[in-house]
Each structure stands twice: as C-alpha cells, then as structure tokens.
Prior knowledge:
It comes from Saccharothrix espanaensis (strain ATCC 51144 / DSM 44229 / JCM 9112 / NBRC 15066 / NRRL 15764). By secondary structure, the chain is of the alpha+beta class.
Amino acid sequence: MPHTGPVDEQRERARLAASDAPTSPWRLWGPYLAGRQWGTVREDYSAGGDAWTSFPFEHARSRAYRWGEDGIAGICDVHGFLNFGLALWNGRDPILKERYFGLTNVEGNHGEDVKEHWWVTDGTPTHSWMQVVYRYPQAEFPYRELREMASNAGRQEREPELADTGVLDENRFFDVLVTYAKAAPTDICVEITATNHGPDPAPLHLLPQLWFRNTWAWGRDDRRPALVASTRDGWRRVGAEHGALGRYTLHVEGTPTLLVTDNETNEVELFDAADNPAQRTKDGIDRYVVRGDSKACLVTGPDDDTETGTKAAAWYSFDPVEPGESVTVRLRLVAGDGHLDAFGPSFQSTLDARRADADGFHRTDLDPLRAKVVRRALAGLMWTKQHYRFRTREWLDGDPAQPAAPRSRQSPHARNAHWRHVDVADVISMPDEWEYPWFAAWDLAFHTVPLARVDPAFAKEQLLLLCREWLMHPNGQLPAYEWEFGDVNPPVHAWAALQVFAIDPDRKFLAKVFHKLLLNFSWWVNRKDADGSHLFEGGFLGMDNIGPVNRSEPMLGQWRLEQSDATSWMAAYSLHLMRMALELARHDDSYEDVATKFVEHFLSIAEASTRFGSGGRGIWDEEDGFCYDVASRRLPDGAVESKPLRVRSMVGLIPVLACAVLEPWVFAELPGFARRLEHLLARRPELGSFLTSRDGRVLLSLLDEDKLRRVLGRMLDEGEFLSPHGIRSLSAAHREGLEVQVADQEHRMGYEPGESRTPMFGGNSNWRGPVWFPTNALLVEALRTVESFHGGLFHVELPTRSQRYVTAGQAADELVRRLVSLFLPDHDGRRPADGKRVESTDSALWRDHVTFSEYFDGDTGEGLGATHQTGWTALVADLLTDRRQTGTIGASIV
C-alpha cells in the first residue's frame, strides 16, 4: 500500500525501502551488542559444560570473550567487530559499571535473573533513531546483598529485586538517557544525558567506550585492529582501523581524559599466571578509574599525544551533580577520517530530524495509552536484535592458541556434538537482551509477526535464516536454542510465515520458506512419530514444566508419551503447509499435489487423535471433553496398555489451533486439488467428520463442532483457564493439586499462577498456570478462523456459565481485550503487569515505563520471568494494530 503521510514518515520508509538486505548500509550499525555474553554456552570451554560457572560475572571485566561482546545501551557493526557502549561509576562501586548484573541459574531462587533497571523507549527499524534509559543507583551497587537475599529465599517466595535492597529509595539514582541518531548510515550522533533524581548532590563518572572484539588471540587470525586516541589540533578523538571495516573516527566533545588499553585477558589476576600475554588488559580502564592504578592503561595528555590499543574510553567526571540537574556528553562516530564540524549545527539538527522521523513512522490513530504500548513494544523488539556468532566445530575442537579442548568435548554425547555444521554470524532477534541472549526457534517465529508490521524485510529474512544450511540440520531439524540445539520447539515457523505473508504479500519469500519447511516437516514425521501411528512425541516443546514429568527425557519401563500438543502442533503444521501450497499453486499448479499431500496428512493425524493410535486410545478423552497426553507401553503378550495423563493444561488446548478454511477460490482456481480431495473423501468417508462445508467454503478442524464447544467451555471458564488477563497455561481447577500416575509412578503437581516452584528446566519459567502471550495469540487466531467460516453462527458462552453468548470472533476480541489490559492502567491507575514490583509505585519516574515480561501471573497479571523480554510479548503490538476486531461483546448476546 503506498504511503501518503508527511515527509517525516516518508523518510524512514524510504530508508527501509533501500534496506531490504541484512547488509544494506542503513543496517550496518544497530543495537547488535549483547546485554550479556558471560555465562553463555559459546563462552563455556569447561570439561563439565557448566556455562554459568565457567565464565562468571566476576570474570567479565577482565577476560576477553571468544564469540561476542556485551555492554550497557551499546551498539556495534553488523559483523560485531567494533563496539560502542556506556560505562559508569558513582564513586562508590567496587568496579566500573560496564555491563548489567544478574544472578546465575543456581544463584537465583527462580533461576537466572538480571538485577538492573533499563527501558528501551524508542526506535526505528533502520536504527536511524534509538533511545534507551538506564537507571543507575547513587549508592554502592549491592552485588553481595542481592546474592544473599536470593540465597535465603525459597521457590515459594518472590524474586528479590534491586529496589528491595533500598538503594533506590528517595529516588537516589541517575536516569541515563542514551540517544543514537544517524545523520547517514555511517555517521552516528550519540547524546548521553544523566539526571540526578535524588535529594542530594551526587558524583557521576560517564565513560563512553569504544573497543574491538578480540579476534586475534585464538590462533586463527593474527591480524590485529587498532584504536588510536588523539588530542591533536584541539580535538579529542579515537581513530579505529580494521581490516574489514576500514577506518572510523569517534569524535568526543569537551575535554575528557582519553584512556586506552587492550581487550586482552588479565591472566595474572584471574588465573594467577606469572605474566600476561599483553602489557595492558581488558580491565585496564576499570583499574585506572576505580582502583587508581596509574599503570593500568595509557592516558592521553593535553597536547598532541596519541596512544594505541584495542579498547578506549572518554572519561567525563561530574562531581557533584546537583539534585534535579542533568549533565550531557556528546560523541559522533563517523566512517573515515571524521567530521569537520562534528558538534556543530548538524548534530542537533540530526537529532531533531530523526526524532521527527520516528514520530512520523509510528503515527497511529490509536489513543495515546495504546499507542505508547505499541511504540515501546516495537522499540524493545527492535533493540533485541543481536549479532550472533558461533562456529560449533571450532568451539568443540578448541582454538590453536588456547589450551586443548577437554576430552569430554570429543564425546558423541557432548553438548551440540551433532550440530558441527552450525556456522552462524548473523543479526538475529533474541528472546531477551540479558536472560536469553541467544536465539530460540519458536520465540523468533513469534517475533517476526509484529516485526513484519514495521520491517517486513527483516521479518522474512529471520524466518529464512533459521532454515539456512548453516543453521538447519542436514536432516531437516531446526535448531532449538544454544543450550541444546537438538531440543524441540513447537513447529510454528509455517504459521509465522503465513502471518508475515498476510502483512506483506511476497510469493517469492513464501516459496523459499515453504521448500525449506518441507525438509523440516519430514524430520518431524520420521523422528517424532515412532511407530507411524500419527501420534507424535515432541518432547520438550518449549513449555518447560507444563507436565508432571520432564517430557524431554525417556520414560521408565518401556513407557512412551504420546503428546496431545505434539500431535496437535503437527496437525496445525500440516494445515499451514497446505495453505502455503495452495497460495503458491495459484501461480504454479505443480504445488496442487503437495497441497493434497498435507490435507491427507492432516486427516490422518485427526483420525488418530480421536479413535486409533497405539492401544486404540487417542488424545481426545470423551469423558472429560478434553485432550490429554497419553502414556502407553507394549505388554509381553503384544497388547498395548495406555493411560491418559489427566492434567488440564495448555497441551489440551493446542488442538484448537489445528483449523483452516478452504475459501471458494481454492475450488474455482484449483480444480485438480478439489477433485483429489473429493476422491479422498469418497474412498475414506469416515474422514468427513473433520470437514464442514457451507456456502462453497470448507472448514478443516482437528476438533469437530461438538468437541470444540466442549474444549472452549473449559477454556472460557474463569474457574479454569480464563483469567482476567488471558488464557492460563494450566487450569485453575487444579489449585489444590492433583496426583498423576505416570509410568507406574505417582507425581504431584498443581496450579501455580506465579513463579515456578519446581527446578525442572532450570526453574526459570513456569507453564503451570501463568498467562503466556504466544499461545494466547495463537488461540486468538484460531477463534478468528472459526469466525471467518461460521460468519457469526457459532456461539460460545463467555464466560462459561454466565448465560452470555458471543460469536467466536467476539470471543477473540474479548481475549485480546484481556491480554492488552495487562499494559493499560486499571481503575486504580495501575498497570496489572506491574504487579507489586517497584514499577507500580505512584512515582511518575517508575509509572512512565511500560515493562514487557516473559509471562504473567495467572491470577493478578503481574509480569514475571525475564522482565526485559519484549520478545514474543511484543505480540501485544500486533494485537493492538490488528483491524479484524468484530465489535463489542455486548452487541452479540443471543
């Protein structure tokens, strides 16, 4: 659709139009610097594979990373070579604040947890404009106290947060606003403004840093880049020379002290070595500023001095900053030899123009509160794009200039040993900047849907990226996530591709991703349907602790688990690929046969889910009117014993997702497909129960109308799944807990609306009651599909037992309303997602910032888990901008 908005809107769209490739000039620089690199699998070279202790937080300031870098409010080039970030010191901290602090998985009472406050407040898709606010305490940062508080807290208690220590009382903190505005693709204006919100004067040191990722210490590439700090001609600047990037110049306003060191490991301090491989080390600036070690780094003098290294900082000292006062520093990073008038009128005019561009680009007819939620959600999602570099073969074998890889790395059972082909160096959308600084397959698929509304080229590239030969396994499996590529996430890639295609119709993209997903679908069929019963065993499937047992591990005593959700995901996957094939067949009839294949596969799964499968029991339970996982085993006499796991959870709602409508154009334009479908039903009329025809349209659904009503009756029951803020992941009917027999063993579990009480999968997330955005968004989409077919003739009681009947579409609208309400002020003026956290206080300094959490309390809506995870929770932006709402519920009561 052509845009006819004002000039400021057109400018960002013009930049986007010229930036359809990942390496396009306007995409060269972005927020690609990780929030955390320490404690990742990539940096773990230990024999035991304990990433958290192999590279702990205490090592990060003194030890060079192998695969990436991290920093506060930072940016880097698309290759991750040259990095810029903010360091701070309040005169009291024992170390320079160069990166966010958080607890490791074993330290936190609910797993890993960052203990800092920052918010991404604005951004554009080409990163021509970005703003981040970091909240820095004026008292000594309570590293030890936070660890002790978490150690003393149990799984029944809340996570201790920074505000609980008292260091933020009376607003004794600086808000540091970091703004990036591009005058050109390689001309970046940086403004850093720190405001003292406390009641007393307080010192502050700002140290913007520029550094190269260490690529030379591993024995594979000896070329060494250089940073040259200079004060010649009255200018303060740092020149950066790199073999691939070329030359850049960082201009520094004012008269700060320029400090230079090298991004090299301090072997003496960390490992008691006799000496260091380099004279100056990564922690040199920290040691100079905080510890007063005058030999730790090189210092530029006032006249004509130049110093060379691979890490540099401009040290600004403000002592004190008065209450309510703000201090500002400005820098400009420019390709080449620099800018003749770096801080002249063009600097401010660039900031003004890019701010106007962002306002124009995000212009909407939503009310201000909803518009703010959308803009913040999208800004956070765009910010969590990170450069991800990992060459598994080198990681497993070790580097020539480093100690030999432990023997355990050569074991076929070593982590990711069967993924030696992975060789990735791309910008990827991450689930979270700190807690999950690595890609996850199903997270990424959900990210692409809201991304497609602002940056369709990037959304499409991300979906294709995971299918590329350097990531997809040769057998067709998609990598799940860094901790174990071979784990299995739900197959939602095709669904996401269809959503992106609907937003930005691109048949070439659709064909590319379809061909790759054919390989992935075959992997599922060959590997996850052990006996060809069409009942699938997905394993983990992303929903962590949702079951009474760990579904990634083999069951005892020859038992196997036939999963309701795995089977239903595959039924939905079949329909998604069918829809893709049909769309492609409109211009190439060779796809018609493939579409028929997926219809047949769907119908086979549908039949198995209700009547057959091993032991003659499917996932549907007629007595309860719900779908369950089934445990089965073959007895010595050849008979099969099977038992349903009667836990009403999200795994029993996933069957609702397996539905699709064949529109009249399918039968008019693709007569071959229509004939083959008619022939199939003539041969196997029993399959007709999964198809409903009306007015030339056909609905394919895993659940027939009666079963769907029964499942929705539970889903829309406020005593079970329907919470004030979305669909719970476990029925609240299990509040008192229940005993479940699995493989001849008793397991107890129950409804847990908040943080996890079990250490399963690290205990850092919980699917036993909270509301999760991705599955809720899929349920909304399924209800809209039902509405599109029945056209207002399918009614459900909402809530159950209320005697209020609404159409499926209006039920979707109500679900959207409840989900969106998490981020909007209620009658008390508080956002439910803020819960009891410090963000819920009356202070505008907190209430102004919307947070997007990993998941939400099933009773109160409080945001939980990763609290900087815009990630898939950014789907709220898609829900708020979706124009398919059918109207108010009250108008449809019958």
